[in-house]
Automatic annotation (TrEMBL):
Its main location: nucleus. SUPFAM superfamilies: AlbA-like. This is Uncharacterized protein. PANTHER family: RIBONUCLEASE P PROTEIN SUBUNIT P20. It holds the Pfam family Rpp20. One of its GO terms (biological process) is tRNA 5'-leader removal. The lineage of its organism: Eukaryota, Metazoa, Ecdysozoa, Arthropoda, Hexapoda. It is found in: Nucleus, Nucleolus. Keywords: Nucleus, tRNA processing.
Length: 142
């Protein structure tokens, strides 16, 4: 059976978006990504990003563990997930069996704002999902 679409009102101002085009800016709007929400940061929590120097992040983690901390938590989201995993594996390799890893993955919902360039169009918000990883590096009790 075919549906009769002649009774459905057709809007001339409606833009049809495909799956990934939905999140892109167009000529009427600018895409502004909001900062992702973060948990309350403790002294042993390290947020891993792609913008920071990997050796510097590794040195900070080693310094915290050498001070006698029993555990640290590495948090990474999106494109920084492989970097957080690599950092945790580097720490596990350096301390050769005296520390272990506990990995938790999750998905967070992020909000992006599409701001109107002119006042003729309204601003709107969009949500998207992003992968996250929290890796707890803790001392093994022997």
């Amino acid at each position: 059976m075919e549906e009769d679409t002649s009774k459905v009102p057709q809007s001339t101002n409606t833009k049809h978006y495909y799956k990934r085009q939905h999140y892109k800016s167009d000529s009427d709007h600018i895409l502004r990504k909001r900062i992702p929400p973060r948990d309350i940061r403790g002294p042993n929590d390290f947020y891993i990003t792609n913008n920071s120097n990997f050796k510097g992040q590794l040195a900070q983690c080693i310094k915290a563990l050498d001070k006698g901390e029993s555990e640290i938590v590495l948090c990474g989201s999106g494109a920084a997930v492989p970097r957080a995993i690599n950092l945790a594996l580097q720490l596990e390799d350096k301390y050769s069996g005296s520390y272990s890893l506990d990995v938790h993955t999750s998905t967070i919902h992020l909000v992006d704002d599409l701001e109107s360039i002119s006042n003729t169009h309204e601003s709107r918000s969009q949500t998207r999902c992003n992968s996250c990883v929290k890796i707890r590096v803790y001392k093994i009790n022997e």
